[in-house]
Amino acid sequence: MTMFDDRERAEEAKFARDQEMLFRITARRNRLVAQWAAKQMQLTPAETDAYAKAVVQADFEEAGDEDVIRKLVGDLTAAGVEADEPTVRRALEEQAVEARRQLMESR
Asked: What is the pTM (predicted TM-score) of this model?
């Protein structure tokens, strides 16, 4: 019986680690895509840092990426930068790859 209990605990621990890594990748991705958008909007370094924090916070509004996409498209458009949803989605995908790479290298 303990063999099954040990296996169950190991699976639960793996699931928890995987979920934490996914959260960290998403947060890093959001920060990176915010920096990309800030560069497009020509923000100062201080404004870029504040904007990155705002984008990371925006991800907590609802499940999925739609809240982040809405924020980025809205902010870019308001700043006079021509950006549409497919462009922002592509940037999110690219930055997700970079975020994963960065976190894997830091291990």
From this structure: 0.85
- Give the sign of the dihedral formed by CA 74, CA 69, CA 90, CA 25: positive
- What confidence tens digit (pLDDT) does each residue in 12-25 have? 989 999 899 999 99
Cα 91 vs. chain centroid, distance in angstroms? Answer: 11
Q: At what angle do helices 66-78 and 45-58 cross, to 10 degrees?
A: 150
b/e string for 60-99 if b means 16 or more Cβ within 10 A? eeeeebebbbebbbebbeeeeeebeeeebeebbeebbebb
Report residue 72's pLDDT band, with 50, 70 and 90 as the boundaries.
Answer: very high
* Enclosing H/E stretch for 21: helix 2-41
Domains of the chain: residue spans and CATH: 2-106 (1.10.790.20)
